[in-house]
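Reopening this one. Same input as before:
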Amino acid sequence: MHLEIITPDKKLFEGEAKSLTVPGSEGSLGVLNNHAPMIASLKKGKVKVITASETKNFEIKGGVIEVLKNKVVVLAE
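Same output, byte for byte:
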């Protein structure tokens, strides 16, 4: 799936990811390939991105995630 993590200041990540874990406002959310369409709010916490070659972690203060047709956009604070 194609993933973009964007803050008001810059783009933190753009590329292909195998899986993604985000701190949803109602609990942790995991996203894999072919995930159902979704929009959810995010709370303060850690975004974990697993790519083919590495694992990356990003701290966010909140935001929104949109999942649609194997494209994921995280708008983070």
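So the earlier flakiness isn't reproducible anymore. For the record, The chain has a mean pLDDT of 95.
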